[in-house]
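User: My advisor, Dr. K., asked me to get a structural model of this assembly before our group meeting. I'm new to this, so sorry if the format is off. These are the inputs:
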Amino acid sequence: MQDAELRERLEKICSQAMLSFSKEEFERFVEEAKKILELFNEIEQLNLEEEKSLFLHERQAKLREDEEKKFEWNPFENANKELVKENKFVGPKIV
Amino acid sequence: MLKQLVEKIKSEEIDVEELVEKKIEEAKKINEELNCFITICEDYARKRAKEIKQKIKKGEATNLKLVGVPFTIKDNILTKGIRTTAGSRILLNYIPPFSATVVERIEREGAIIIGKTSMDEFGFGSFNVNVGVGFKIPKNPNDTSRVCGGSSGGSACATKTLEIPSLAESTGGSISAPSSFCGVVGLTPSYGKVSRFGLIDYASSLDKIGTMALNVEDSFLVYDTIKGFDENDETSRSEERDSELKKKLAIPKEAFDSCEKEIKEKFMGSLKKIGWEYEEVSIPLLKFSIQSYYIIAMAEASTNLARYKGIAFGAQENVEEKNFREYFTKIRSENFGFEAKRRILLGSFVRSVGYKGQYYYKALAIRKKIIEEIEKLFKNFDAFVLPAMPIFPPKIEEALSLSPEKVYALDICTIPWNLCGLPHISIPIKEENYKQLGFEVVCNRFEEEKLKKLSLEFENKLK
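Assistant: The format is fine. Below is the predicted structure of the whole assembly, which you can bring to the meeting.
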């Protein structure tokens, strides 16, 4: 994986994992992550495809291609009319 | 020996309140120098000692196996009403509303908890230097400039200095490593043999609660109290296996070759003392156990730690941020240590779309294959034997300066057995200085009885 690609990926994961780093911390993290991933990449040389593994079949499974469907929903459709004014619900204040 | 101590407490030759008071004072004193405790629960211990004394007087303690025995507990095992932090600032003031099954079981037998021990944050470390933000690094009792080993470093240090047992936990070697570095016996049972209910998870498919003590007999006495099925943990089992004794041991080549020369010599000297037949065996996949373990462990850790956001669990602050996402990010970023953040992020990475097959699934397949290969070898051997650590305890600064991938590689003597969920024990090869080394014995899954037989004999011969 290219340096820029890895950096971008890690930044995205940081956001998803709800973690932030200072600039220096992030630089340190990227440099160390590269070396750790190099270590992890050593398993690429293993060919375990022929193994009757419980897990490998999932890797080969194709993802279903989803069709985008427009979601149409009117939240006021079934509401009591006296409770809707100018497309907003009007009701007692909950304290 | 715990058995003798228990008999003396039962017969009131030793006053349980005096004993507990003495241990509390010692704990406070050694903690100033060695940082092996996160919490010393002196009031709770005194209250328990009083209750136990009453029980003894009333004759209600006759059948209890651990009556009056002071204990320490690793700080990732829940103790009702006693602060439990898992060594992390994010749980700094967490008071559990219930106790772990293992804690309930030892307390039912009359044990008295005197404190919660230091650890790497959530168990993320091999030297106990990856402590949480604001926590202190525990020091090796044999040489205070050196590490205790991790992640159950505080437990090993407390067991060695206070001479009392401890409940510890291992994910990839967190019992064997500190036991080897500090010179105590560390027993890691088969995965599932001891309930994990009430353990703060690191990697749920790898975590195991075990024991630390000064000798093999005491380790198994405590283990016998905590083992067995628990309805609160569906992975727990009461299953026991036994196989014919062959008096033949195997040295796993790939792990043994990674050890320092002096370690190898010391280990071989000990093996000769034991006098059993042995053979070096090669398991080529073993060298990939490091990658397999770290990928699986980080992946599981990243999901297990997602719950700490400052709402249901974890540190809380006033919400001043614009939205909850910012609040969660602030809480997590300020309260997790660097290693915890690293493992969360790399764990998320190896599970992410596009990389899951390359890393996570492959790691699972490697684990499965290693388990199969090792299972076959147990047909010819009783146990694997090897040094528990490939190095002697390094100085604290040396450990802090090591790059993460180098630290991970040093786990080669403990990871394979943890990855496969096999029971193992580290027995100290006695030394006077810091050069402590554990003689590790690994048996097949659920063969704890055989492990006990072997380790009692080996301990005797290694004296």
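One thing worth pointing out at the meeting: The beta strands of chain A are 84-85, 88-89.

User: Perfect, thanks a lot.
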